[in-house]
Amino acid sequence: MVKFGILGAGRIGKVHAATIAASARASVAYVADAIPDAANALAASVGAKVSTIDAILASDVDAILIATPTDTHADLIEQAARAGKAILCEKPVSLSVERIEACLPVVEKAGVPLMIGFNRRFDPNFASLQKRLRDGEIGDVELVTIISRDPAPPPVSYIERSGGLFRDMMIHDFDMARFLVGEEFVTVHALGGALVDKAIGTAGDVDTASVQMQTASGKIVVITNSRRATYGYDQRLELHGSKGMLRAGNVHMTTVESATASGFNADVIQNFFIDRYVAAYAAEVNTFIDAMASGKTPTPSGHDGLQAQRLAEAATKSRQTGEVVRV
Amino acid sequence: MVKFGILGAGRIGKVHAATIAASARASVAYVADAIPDAANALAASVGAKVSTIDAILASDVDAILIATPTDTHADLIEQAARAGKAILCEKPVSLSVERIEACLPVVEKAGVPLMIGFNRRFDPNFASLQKRLRDGEIGDVELVTIISRDPAPPPVSYIERSGGLFRDMMIHDFDMARFLVGEEFVTVHALGGALVDKAIGTAGDVDTASVQMQTASGKIVVITNSRRATYGYDQRLELHGSKGMLRAGNVHMTTVESATASGFNADVIQNFFIDRYVAAYAAEVNTFIDAMASGKTPTPSGHDGLQAQRLAEAATKSRQTGEVVRV
Amino acid sequence: MVKFGILGAGRIGKVHAATIAASARASVAYVADAIPDAANALAASVGAKVSTIDAILASDVDAILIATPTDTHADLIEQAARAGKAILCEKPVSLSVERIEACLPVVEKAGVPLMIGFNRRFDPNFASLQKRLRDGEIGDVELVTIISRDPAPPPVSYIERSGGLFRDMMIHDFDMARFLVGEEFVTVHALGGALVDKAIGTAGDVDTASVQMQTASGKIVVITNSRRATYGYDQRLELHGSKGMLRAGNVHMTTVESATASGFNADVIQNFFIDRYVAAYAAEVNTFIDAMASGKTPTPSGHDGLQAQRLAEAATKSRQTGEVVRV
Amino acid sequence: MVKFGILGAGRIGKVHAATIAASARASVAYVADAIPDAANALAASVGAKVSTIDAILASDVDAILIATPTDTHADLIEQAARAGKAILCEKPVSLSVERIEACLPVVEKAGVPLMIGFNRRFDPNFASLQKRLRDGEIGDVELVTIISRDPAPPPVSYIERSGGLFRDMMIHDFDMARFLVGEEFVTVHALGGALVDKAIGTAGDVDTASVQMQTASGKIVVITNSRRATYGYDQRLELHGSKGMLRAGNVHMTTVESATASGFNADVIQNFFIDRYVAAYAAEVNTFIDAMASGKTPTPSGHDGLQAQRLAEAATKSRQTGEVVRV
Is D224 in contact with A145 (Cβ distance < 8 A)? Predict the structure, then answer.
């Protein structure tokens, strides 16, 4: 049994706590949150106790799940590592590459497992696609197209402290690109604009963007993002390889289709990220529990978190300067 | 809070118990099963006590969920009704129309709610389709095509006590036909054969069948069934109406698609009925709980169970005699 | 070079004449039509001469293409056969089974080839499906679903002399059923109603119908027809076999798809039968030309025409009597 | 009647000649080709005479269709312009931007119409998509994804004189980008590699490439190309706008789909460009004929040809230098 302490009782903390509670091999022992009501409610729902971060780190829990605000992640990872706990931290480690570079050696020195919660790797569709790629179904991958579009932009107040679209939204796609291609990217070029909401532009960010990247061996990845899609939460991957193509599409709300004089109409796609990735979040936590049980090193690792952040930083810089950035 | 006693701790009993346990408005108080280990395991998983049927009926539970073998349903419904309990009974009430006709007046006299577990009405896809039909999206329905194909035939030993394909498998489609068309059928004609497994024919049943039925107003429903589909559990509906068509398709295992020199390949469809209808089973139980809470009469009712069984009986007779049966 | 005389310069006569004119192995020598302008226009467009039926039959043409009104087909087939000409006749030979039974021996005695223009056998989609079935891709066929829906009903004046839906519209599906299953049907049951237009019912016909048929070996075919489909000319086949399923879908007007808050919208399907089957009509005529060149017997044969008509007659009788008809 | 002289009796010349011959408003008067047999065969098939380029330009033809090798286009356009003929020239005007810049003023001075044969604008699917975009169906376009993949790379000998992938293959996508977005691009960045065939790299070209471009107003277009796709000739467009998405997909060989234990299989897509764009080629020529008849200026114009070539040149330079190119 893996005994967890959960730091952060917000939206994602709750999703993960439910997965742990439903596992036959893990349990939630403690919950900490700056908002007492949130901590109490979550603790009650999974039979855990409310506590403080310090007390949890000092307790006998085996693992710490970090689901607190982003700017606390790196500090908490270091504290948990020093306390000898295995760590599952929501992405990102930090919006700053430098901060991650300082954090990871602390974890390494402590010798504890650190897994970063890039949930999309665990989506059954994307995971199946990646497995089929690795199994050679389409030969060598040459060209990857990643499309991510949110249903609607977040408030400008969120945008302002988000680190920008490349660090906040496209970070998932950078990780997915590395996950799929299995090589590092050496060239990054980004384009962007505030086409959805001018206020986002005024805040120094973009809401519509594209990035193209290339590995040393020549493999190309193209990513496009929009902060608004009227038809739902659009999440697609397409891989072109020497023997064929593999792609993963969206999940429609229902399989119902109509046909009238206006044409054939299929349902909109799922539009809330937690609904869309409910299976992914569960698989992510269970993968961590499996790794704890088997003694294997869980991935995505802290290094994966660092590399994705480096790409986000390169893209941010490229968009700002208008030039190509070498990583 | 609706307090449940669950009779039957098998496959479906477990699915329903989990839904009740997860509901904020209901709980499982007691579980009974002829197999003590099954009862114990289920009771433990939902925080209930193991008991006997008689004791549960004599207890303070509000509702009885009947998930025992088919041949016990009618007797248990009558006992539960006499005990004044609300009843959610897995389909069918009985394989015998006469037995159902005897049972329902007992329920009526007792004045308790009785809901029959035709799970497919609660599938989000089919429920959405039916709602859109009722909302007038395709005008008046004229022609309905229902396709149901199981992944693989059950053992002949099961077939022998199943009541035959029309009562055991197509019963779901008869209920769906009534649910969609909203009228009773007056003409039934069935065809069938043992094309999948000759042993099924030797046992007096068929594994491949079609039925066409018509209402007094002329609406037509065509149902086809097969006990075997190599590509999964095939469950489709198509409605043709005066203003257009509505249909609900299958659920694929993933959204992954490949394209190679062999063409474009999409994943097989879900092939286990509990996976396919997991959301339907939950919605079914929650509908019953809602009805209990609001005092509304839940459907599908005992009468719905009776009418579906009458169609199954008519189809069975039509297939055996080769003639059209008027209902 | 196969030299053709074309009888009938209407819609289908024109389509076939263009195919013959475009063939490197055939030419149109003469055209006859009761309407001089129609004959002149068609003759001019393919470099042929206008003539009379008698003169054409007495000429040196190798083959007669009959595209005149249905009630003249049987007589013209007999005349052409006696004149020693190969014959390609639009379906049907006659609306009367008896008349066909009288006609075919005349053809047989004359020893001339007779091909009946069931165009759908030559549709590239349906032909590919049938070939893949014959090649064993889905094992033995067990269950066939045929859906045919016209965009809009013809005028009642047409209905009145059409022979009824089963002879006029479903005749294509009866031929397709035989083409796909490769066995004769022994049981026919039909349902129908005038749900689209009551005037069609007053005229003694139906506009919505279903037929289920079974072969001696147990194979089942289900056909549904409607005289009206708001979304286009709906033409689909689905075959269920021991190793899987094969189906052929509709052809959309374009491949354009939109996605908005209203869902995903694909274009309507082709809605004019000549557009939908343009490739089929050409392949039909070229098959006849090939057969002439190679000395092979072309199919579908006169016997195929007879058998389809027998099914149409059985279905008509079944619908009228409400009983099953044995063929 | 528009009287045409056709220069070049190759693959495309033949396709266009057939369209002209089938038009009620145009005819082919003369054909010229360096290969006498080709000229003779084509002239015979459309009832035209074989002649020389000079004689055709001196004749009474109204229009010249240029379908000769690329390196002759600019010279022939100038000659035809000076002869006062309307001109339909296959793309591109020249592989050299400078040469086009020199050529267009000659046309302008002569005051003759010049249309460049970017066939894809006339594909019914793409044309419908563009019309729906212009009609406002998805609001303002923000992000465009263009995917073009050839079935197989051409011989290296062809590659060597092709001007490179961006001028030879992606040129179509550059034109499509301008056609769809309706604004000029100011920033171009290209990536590329020889991932399909190293010999293509040795010849100084790439076979796999991506380009991202942005207009002054911020609209982004992403193009990916591969010289090889195992599943056919892949040609797709996707537009993301403020109100939704519009996309145009591929055309499958048939509508047949199978379902087996291996999943659901749809046919490969059309894989020969002339088959895929047969309707587009005809619509292109008919658009030119319409413009001649109505006195309207046909598009795409010489300026469109120039602008596409400028993007191709910018992309070539970007790929070679690794830097962003401002246009």
Answer: yes
Residue C255's SS3 state is: coil
Q: Does D214 touch chain A (CB under 8 A)?
A: yes
A249 to B260: CB separation less than 8 angstroms, yes or no: no
Can you give the length of chain B in residues? 327
Question: pLDDT truncated to tens, each residue of chain A (327 aa)?
Answer: 999 999 999 999 999 999 999 999 999 999 999 999 999 999 999 999 999 999 999 999 999 999 999 999 999 999 999 999 999 999 999 999 999 999 999 999 999 999 999 999 999 999 999 999 999 999 999 999 999 999 999 999 999 999 999 999 999 999 999 999 999 999 999 999 999 999 999 999 999 999 999 999 999 999 999 999 999 999 999 999 999 999 999 999 999 999 999 999 999 999 999 999 999 999 999 999 999 999 999 999 999 999 999 999 999 999 999 999 999
Task: Tell me which of C230, C243, C246 to substitute to probe the interface with B (most B C-beta atoms closer than 10 Å).
Answer: C230
Indicate whether B313 and B185 sit together in one domain.
yes
- Is the same domain home to B234 and B126? yes
C83 and C169: one domain? no
Contact (CB, 8 A) for A16 and A4: no
Q: Is B265 on the interface with A (CB under 8 A)?
A: no
Q: What is the CATH number of the domain that holds C222?
A: 3.30.360.10
- The chain C residue lying nearest D262, using CA atoms, is C244
Q: What is the ipTM of this complex?
A: 0.95
Are D143 and D108 found together in one domain? no
Do residues B158 and B220 share a domain? yes
Asked whether the beta carbons of A155 and A203 are under 8 A apart, the reply is no
**Which residue among B68, B92, B112 closes a domain?**
B112
Place of tokens 């004609």: B189
On whether residue D219 sits in a domain, the answer given is yes
Total domain count for chain C?
Answer: 2
Q: Which of residues 219-248 of A touch C (CB under 8 A)?
A: 229-231
Q: Pairing state of beta strands A141-149 and A220-226?
A: parallel
Residues of D in contact with B252 (CB under 8 A): 264
**Which residues from chain B sit within 8 angstroms of residue C194, using beta carbons?**
218
- The tokens for B176 are 């769906």
Q: C268 touching A, CB under 8 A?
A: yes
Minimal Cα–Cα distance from B92 to chain C, Å? 27
Neighbour-count burial of D296, counting CB atoms closer than 10 A to its CB (0-12 exposed, 13-18 middle, 19+ buried): exposed
pLDDT in tens, B278-319: 999 999 999 999 999 999 999 999 999 999 999 999 999 999
Buried b or exposed e, range B116-140, using 16+ CB within 10 angstroms: bbbbbbbbebbbbbbebbeeebbee
Domain ends where: D91, D112, D133? Answer: D112
Q: Residue D104 maps to which CATH number?
A: 3.40.50.720
Residues B147 and B257 in one domain: yes
Subunits with at least 3 CB pairs below 8 A relative to chain C? A, B, D
DSSP A229: -
Q: C163 falls in which pLDDT band (50, 70, 90)?
A: very high
User: Is position D169 within any domain?
Assistant: yes
Q: Do residues B195 and B166 both lie within one domain?
A: yes
Residue B291 lies in a domain: no
| Domain around B183 | 121-280+307-326
Residue B296 lies in a domain: no
Question: Which residues of chain C are within 8 Å of residue A267 when distances are taken between CB atoms?
Answer: 263-264
For the stretch B187-200, what's the b/e string if a residue is b when 16 or more beta carbons lie within 10 angstroms of its beta carbon? bbbbbbbbbbbeeb
| Shortest Cα distance, chain C CAs vs residue A138, angstroms | 24
CA–CA min distance D71, chain B (Å): 35
Residues B247 and B274 in one domain: yes
Q: Which of A145, A218, A226 sits opposite D193 (nearest CB)?
A: A218
Nearest 5°: the CA angle B175, B300, B235 is 40
Of A194, A222, A228, the CB nearest to D222: A222
